[in-house]
Amino acid sequence: MKLSIHNVRAKILIASLSVLIVAQVIATFSSYNVANARMHQAAQNFLTSIVNSASAEINARNDIEFKMLEKLSQIDMIRDPSVSAWDKIQFLLPLAESDEDCQSITFVGRDGASYLDEVNITDISNAPFFQASISGKKFIQDPELNPFFNQLFIIYSIPVYGKNNEIIGILAEIKNGDAICNVVSKIPVGTQTPFVLSMNTGAVVGHENQNLVLGGVNLPSVMTGDFADLLNDACKGNTGYRECTVVSKEGESDQLIAYMPVGGNTDWTIVACGYKDEFLKGLRSIRLSACTSIPFWVVIATVVLMIGLGWLLLSKQSEPKDTFNDPQEAYAYFSSTMNRIASEFNDGMDKANAAMSTLKTVMSNETK
Predict the structure, then answer these.
(1) First to last CA, the chain
(2) Using CA of residue 330, residue 334, residue 336, residue 337, what is the dihedral sign?
(3) What percent of the chain lies above the pLDDT cut of 70?
(4) How far apart are the C-alpha atoms of 86 and 114, rounded to whole Å?
(5) Per-residue pLDDT for 35 more than 80?
(6) Is 167 left (phi over 0), alpha (psi -120 to 50) or beta?
C-alpha cells in the first residue's frame, strides 16, 4: 500500500492560507466596527464638552457681574437708608461710564421707584428683576432690545442689605446683551455654533446671529419633529445627547445635538448642534483605510506564510520520501511533518497577530 503526501502538503498550505486570510478579514472589519463605535462616542464627548465649556464661560461672566454688584452693595453709602436713592444713583453712574459694556448701574428702593433723573421717576415694582431681588435673590433678566441705544441689554440685579441686615432696595446693572452672543459665536461646532435658550419662554437669548435673539420667538414652538421634542426636553432643564433630523429653510439635515442647563442664577439652557456628516467624515477615511488594508495585509501574510512553508517542506532535514510501502512508517512521517508544520505555523500566526495588533493601534489612533 502506497500513500502520497503531496496532496497533504497542498491541503495544509491551502488550509493555512485560508485561515490566515479569514482571520485578517475578520480582524480588519472588527477594527472598523470598533472605530465606528469610538467615532460616535468621540462625537458625543466633543459636543458634551462644548456645552460644558460654554456653560462654564457664561457662568464665569455672570459671576463677575454679580461680584462687582456685591462689592458695591457693601459700600456704606449704598447701605445707608438715610441716603436718598438719587444720591446713590449719582454715585454709581461714573462707575457705569468707566465700563464700555455697561449701559447703566442704578439703585432702586423698596418702593420700586426708578429715577431717570432727579424729577422723572418710573415705577418698576412689577419688573421681574426687581421682584426677585427685593425678595433676596440674585437675578438675570433675559436679553431685550433697548430702544434708546438700539441694542440688546441684559439686567443683573441683587438685593441691598442695610446696616441692620434688612433689605432696603436693589442694585441693578444694565449690561450690553450681546455678551452671551459673543461667547457662543466663538465656539465652533463644525460650521455651526451653540445657542442659548430661555427655559421659561423658549426664546433664543444667545446666538451668533443676534437677529434671532431680537426676534424673541419661542423656538420649540416653530420647530417640528424630533428637534422640537429635543428643545422642549432641554427647556425642562434636562441634560441629554441625541441624533435627530432638523428641518429648516435650507432643508432637512441629520445632526448630533447635546444640551444642558447653564445653571448659576439663570433659567437658560445651552444647545450644541453639529452636522452628522461633518462629525463622522473621519469614519469614511477609516472605512477606506480598513478596506484597502485587507488585500495589502493578506498579500504580505501570504508571502510570509508561503516562504515559511516552502522552506519547511523543501528543507533537507531528513530526505523526505514521496511514497511509503509501510503504512506505519507513513503515519509516523506524517505525524513528524505535521508537528514541524504546526510549530512553524504557530510562529507565523504570532507574527501575523503582532502585525494585526499594530494595525489596530494605528486605526484606533485615527479615531482620537
Answers:
(1) 64
(2) positive
(3) 65
(4) 9
(5) no
(6) beta
Q: What mean pLDDT, rounded, does the chain reach?
A: 77
Nearest by Cα to 269 from 354, 202, 358, 174: 202
Task: Spell out the long-range contacts of 76-82 with Cβ–Cβ below 8 A and sequence spacing 24 or more.
Answer: 78/107, 78/160, 78/171, 79/160, 79/161, 79/162, 79/163, 79/168, 80/162, 80/163, 81/162, 81/168
Instruction: Report strand pairing: 102-109 vs 167-176.
Output: antiparallel
Nearest Cα residue to 62 out of 183, 148, 169, 164: 183
pTM of the model: 0.66
Backbone angles phi, psi at 3, to 5 degrees: -115, 130
The sheet with strand 139-146 has its strands ordered as 102-109, 167-176, 151-161, 139-146
Q: Which residues contact 309 (CB under 8 A, 6 or more apart)?
A: 12, 13, 16, 341, 344, 345
Beta-bridge mates of residue 113: 123
User: Each residue of 254-268: pLDDT tens digit?
Assistant: 888 899 999 888 889
User: Cell 495585509 appears where?
Assistant: 297
d(CA 274, CA 219): 18
34, 271, 368 from 40: Cα distances, Å = 10, 18, 11
DSSP classification of residue 189:
B
Burial class (CB in 10 A: 0-12, 13-18, 19+), 218: middle
Q: How far is CA 84 from CA 94, 292, 318, in A?
A: 17, 80, 114
User: How large is the average pLDDT for residues 112-129?
Assistant: 85
Q: What is the pLDDT of residues 334-360, one digit of tens each?
A: 667 666 666 665 665 566 556 556 545
What are the residues whose beta carbons fall under 8 Å from the beta carbon of 162, sequence distance 6 or more?
Answer: 79, 80, 81, 168
Cell 433676596 maps to which residue? Answer: 136
Eight-class DSSP state of 139: E
Residue labelled with grid coordinates 453639529: 274
